Amino acid sequence: MAFDRFAEYRGQRSFAVQPEAYTHTKAGGWTRTVEYHGTTNGIIGLIAQFEAGGYTFTADFSGPISKIRGTLSSNPVDSADNESDQYTIHQEVLDQDVFSLEGVEEEAQLYADNTGEPRTKYREIIETAVKNAKISELAEAGLAFGTYPLSLSVYIELARGADFFENNFTILTRTKTVPIAWIGRLAMDTVSKIYSSAGLVSAFGLDPAVRGLFPSADNTVQPNSVWGWRRRRQDIQYLTDGFRATITQDWTWARWSNFIYTEA
After folding, report:
1. Same domain membership, residue 89 and residue 205
2. Residue where a domain terminates, one of 73, 105, 127
3. Do residues 154 and 126 touch, judged by C-beta distance below 8 A?
4. Rounded distance between C-alpha atoms, residue 99 and residue 104, angstroms
5. Which domain holds residue 118?
6. Among candidate residues 51, 56, 42, the one with its CA nearest the CA of residue 13
7. How far apart are CA 247 and CA 234, in angstroms?
8. Going by C-beta distance under 8 Å and a sequence separation of 6 or more, which residues neighbour residue 227?
C-alpha cells in the first residue's frame, strides 16, 4: 500500500492531493480513499491514472474547484458502490441429436453391453440401414425390434429427414453492473466447467435465493454424464458514463459429458 502511482503529479499547480484515508474491513482487507482538488484540465488529466490504477472514482466539475475522489479496495466488491445484480431464468429451445432422445442412449448402451461392441456401433447400424433404405438391415445387424424397439423409431425419424429435434433447456442469466475497476479481476476460462447448483452459487457469488428457481436433476444414471450448469456466454459492455460496465453471463442446465468437460 506504500506504492503511490500519483506521486509524479504532486507539486504541480493544476491540482493538489487531499489527505488520504485507509479503512480496514472486518474480513482483514482494506480500502484506500484518495481525493484531488484542482483545475478542470488538471483533474481531467488524472482520470486515466485512476482508471489504470483500478480505482472506483467520481469527478465533479460543477464548482470553481474541480474534484476527483477514488477508492481502491483489496476486495473489488468492497469498492463497488454501484454494484448490482439482475437475474433471469427462462426456457430456450435448442436442437438435439435424435440419438440423444430419452431412452435411445440407454438402448445403445444395452446393445454395447450385450454385444461387446462400442455404443457408436448402434448408431452406425441404423444410419447404414437408412442410407441403403433397407429397414431389414436393422435385425440382420443385430438390432432385433423385440430387444431394441427404439431402433425402429429412430430409423423412421432419420428416414424422413429428422436428424434433430427441439428440446427446452433452462438458461440462467445474470446481468451484473460494476465499476470499471472490477473488470480487471474477471476470469475468462477457455473451457467452461460443469457446476452443481450449489457450486454455481458459490463459485460466481450468486444470490442464494436464486436457487429456489433452479430445476431438479434427473436421477437417471448415464455413463460419462452429469447434470449441471455450464457457462455459455460472458459479455462485457461499457456504459456511456465512463465509470461502470455490465457483465452478462449465461449458464445452461443440462446433462453434460463429464469426459469432454471438467466437473468443478
Report:
1. yes
2. 73
3. yes
4. 6
5. 96-165
6. 42
7. 7
8. 217, 218, 253, 254, 255, 256
Same-domain check for residues 69 and 192: no
Do 90 and 206 share a domain, yes or no? yes
Same domain, 218 and 175: yes
Amino acid sitting at position 54:
G
Look up cell 430445476; give the residue.
Answer: 215
80/172 Cα distance (integer angstroms): 23
Q: State whether 107 and 207 are in the same domain.
A: no
Are both 152 and 225 inside the same structural domain?
no
Supply the pTM of this predicted model: 0.52
Which amino acid would we find at residue 98? V
Q: Which of 117, 149, 165 is the last residue of a domain?
A: 165
Contacts of 156 (CB under 8 A, 6+ apart): none
Residues for the chain: how many in total? 264
Same domain, 43 and 133: no
Residue with cell 460472458: 234
Would you give per-residue pLDDT tens digits along the chain (264 residues)?
Answer: 333 444 433 444 455 555 555 555 445 566 777 888 888 888 888 888 877 777 777 888 888 888 888 877 665 444 444 567 888 888 777 777 888 877 888 899 899 999 999 888 999 999 999 999 999 999 999 999 999 999 988 898 888 887 776 677 889 999 888 776 666 656 666 667 899 999 999 988 888 888 888 888 776 666 678 889 999 888 888 766 566 778 888 999 988 888 888 888
Instruction: Categorise residue 65: left if φ over 0, alpha if ψ from -120 to 50, beta otherwise.
Output: beta
